[in-house]
Design a protein that fits this description.
By secondary structure, the protein is of the alpha+beta class. The protein is built from 9 helices and 28 strands.
C-alpha cells in the first residue's frame, strides 16, 4: 500500500492520499529554453539557456506559473508526474510586475483526468503549508513542509522594481520549485517564487490576493498591471506639526507631500493634506492600516483594486474633512526602472557609432560608471516627481573600431540635443539624425564632453564595411509607436 508522501511531525497527514493522486496530474514540470537579449551588443543574441520550473492547473486548459519561469522562452514544454510525454506549451498572459503567468497547451490529452486546483485564502501565521513542485535534484514530484513565518510587502526580484505582498515560509524554495503551488487543506494558498540567498530555509510565495488580482486582470483578454496611487507622504507623529495642520486630538493619518504627475492622485491630493482614511479604513500615524489583524501600508488597499476602479481618500484640508474619490490608473510614464522581458532592445548603428535608449536592462548588461547610474536614477526621479517631458534618455553607448572612428573615445554619453533639438524618445532621436543635413551635430550632457559631428557622406561609405566586419546583421531596431 502506498504511503502518504508528506506526514506532519505529529503523524497527521497534511495531504490525504487522494490529494496526492490529484497533484500528480494537476502539478506539471516545466522545461524552458530561454534566450534573452544582449543589451550591450543589441544586434546579437546570447546563447540559449535551459531551466526547469513548475506549474499547476487552475482552470480547464490553463496552467499558472511564475513569469520568470516563462520569460524570453524559445522552447516551452510541460510534463505531468504520472506520464512520460512532454507537451508543447505557450504563454497566454504574463504579469512581470507580479511574477505570474498563464500557460496554455493545445494538446487535449494533457488535460485528461486533470482537476484544477482551487485558490484558497491566505494562510495564518505559524500554520503549516506544503510546497509542491519539481526542484533540482530529481525529476519526480516533490512535496516539502513548512510553516508560515512572516507576511509583509517585499520587493519582487523578477521586475526589480515592484513590491507586493509576499508570504515567507521555512519550506525550501529551490530552483525548479518556482511556479509550483503551496497547499493547505487541499487548496492553493500561494505560488512559490523566490528564495533568499545566504539564508537557510527561507522561501517566499505569492499570496492568494496577488494571484486573484492577476486572474481578475486577465479576464478581459489582456494584462494591464497594478494601479499606482502616487502619493509621497510623511508620518504624522510630531505634535507641533499636528497642531499646525489642525488635526484634532485622537485623529490619525499621514501628511501628503506630493502627488506624482504620472499616477492616479495628481490634481486631487494637495501638499499638506492629511489623509486620515482610505476606503473608510483608518490610517495610523505611521502610514499603516489594520486588516484581519495584520498591519499593512495604507496603499495595500490600492493593491487589491484593478485599473479603472476607484478608491476613496478621506483628507483633512486646511482643517476641514472631505472625501476624495480617486479613479485608479497605471503608471503613465514610459521611463520605468523595471526590467523588460520578451522584447527586442532598440538601437541604431550609424557607421561606427552605437546609440541606444538608456534602460534598466542596459544598465544591468553593461555595469556602467557610477556617474551614469546616478544620472539615470536622478533623471528617473525627476520624471516621477516633476513630470519631465523627455520620455527616454538616449546614449552613445560605444564607438566601434574602424579607420573612420579613430581617436573617438565616446562611451555611455547621454545625448542632450540633435542640431539643437531635444529628442523626446529614441524614435524621435533617430528621426532627427536621419532627417538632418549632411552634417549633424549631437550634443551631450556634461560640460567636459565635446559634441559629435556626424558626416553622413563618410558614414555611408564606412557603414556597410563596419557591419560586415563586425557581423552586424541589422543596423537598427526601432519600435513602432503604439
Amino acid at each position: 500500500m502506498r504511503k502518504c508522501l508528506l506526514v506532519l511531525l505529529l503523524g497527521t497527514p497534511l495531504l490525504a492520499e487522494p490529494d496526492l493522486e490529484k497533484l500528480r496530474g494537476s502539478v506539471v514540470q516545466v522545461f524552458v529554453m530561454s534566450q534573452g537579449e544582449d543589451y550591450a551588443m543589441p544586434w546579437r543574441h546570447p546563447q540559449p539557456e535551459g531551466a526547469n520550473g513548475s506549474a499547476f492547473c487552475i482552470a480547464p486548459g490553463m496552467l499558472l506559473t511564475n513569469a520568470h519561469v516563462a520569460s524570453d522562452a524559445k522552447v516551452l514544454r510541460v510534463k505531468r508526474a504520472d506520464r512520460t510525454k512532454w507537451y508543447e506549451a505557450r504563454v497566454l498572459f504574463a504579469g512581470h510586475d507580479c511574477d505570474l503567468a498563464i500557460l496554455g497547451v493545445d494538446d487535449r490529452s494533457l488535460w485528461e483526468g486533470v482537476q484544477p486546483l482551487e485558490i484558497g485564502d491566505s494562510p495564518a501565521m505559524q500554520s503549516k503549508v506544503a510546497a509542491v513542485g519539481y526542484p533540482v535534484g530529481g525529476n519526480k514530484l516533490s512535496i516539502t513542509e513548512g510553516v508560515v513565518s512572516r507576511i509583509e510587502v517585499r520587493p519582487y526580484s523578477h521586475s526589480g522594481a515592484d513590491a507586493h505582498l509576499a508570504i515567507q515560509i521555512d519550506a525550501a524554495i529551490n530552483p525548479g520549485n518556482s511556479g509550483g503551488p503551496v497547499m493547505q487543506d487541499g487548496k492553493v494558498v500561494g505560488v512559490a517564487f523566490q528564495g533568499q540567498f545566504f539564508s537557510q530555509n527561507i522561501g517566499y510565495m505569492i499570496p492568494p490576493s496577488v494571484i486573484r488580482h492577476f486572474l481578475r486582470d486577465v479576464e478581459d483578454g489582456r494584462y494591464d498591471g497594478y494601479p499606482e496611487l502616487g502619493i509621497y507622504h510623511a508620518e504624522l507623529q510630531n505634535d507641533a506639526l499636528r497642531e499646525y495642520l489642525k488635526v484634532p486630538e485622537g485623529e490619525t493619518g499621514v501628511l501628503a507631500l506630493k502627488a506624482t504627475p504620472y499616477a492616479s492622485a495628481v490634481g486631487l491630493v494637495e501638499r499638506d493634506d492629511v489623509i486620515t482614511r482610505i476606503d473608510n479604513i483608518p490610517i495610523e500615524n505611521d502610514g499603516t492600516i489594520r486588516i484581519d489583524g495584520e498591519s499593512y501600508e495604507f496603499t495595500h488597499v490600492v493593491e487589491e483594486k484593478q485599473i479603472g476602479e476607484t478608491v476613496t481618500l478621506t483628507v483633512r484640508r486646511r482643517g476641514e474633512l472631505r472625501e476624495i474619490p480617486v479613479k485608479l490608473k497605471a503608471w503613465a510614464a514610459r521611463m520605468s526602472p523595471s526590467v523588460a522581458y520578451d522584447e527586442r532592445p532598440e538601437y541604431l548603428v550609424l557607421g561606427g557609432y552605437v546609440f541606444v535608449p538608456l534602460t534598466t536592462n542596459y544598465m544591468m548588461a553593461t555595469r556602467p560608471s557610477d556617474d551614469l547610474a546616478y544620472y539615470y536614477q536622478q533623471y528617473y526621479r525627476n520624471v516621477a516627481e516633476e513630470g519631465k517631458t523627455r520620455e527616454q534618455l538616449v546614449i552613445l553607448s560605444q564607438v566601434l573600431p574602424d579607420a573612420t572612428t579613430r581617436y573617438r573615445t565616446y562611451r555611455n554619453e547621454i545625448v542632450a540635443s540633435v542640431d539643437g533639438k531635444v529628442p523626446n524618445d529614441f524614435r524621435e532621436f533617430v528621426s532627427l539624425v536621419e532627417g538632418g543635413g549632411d552634417l549633424v551635430k549631437v550634443e551631450f550632457e556634461g560640460v567636459n564632453v565635446p559634441p559629435l559631428v556626424l558626416e553622413k557622406g563618410k558614414i555611408a561609405e564606412a557603414h556597410a564595411r563596419i557591419c560586415r566586419n563586425l557581423n552586424i546583421p541589422e543596423d537598427r531596431h526601432v519600435k513602432e509607436p503604439k
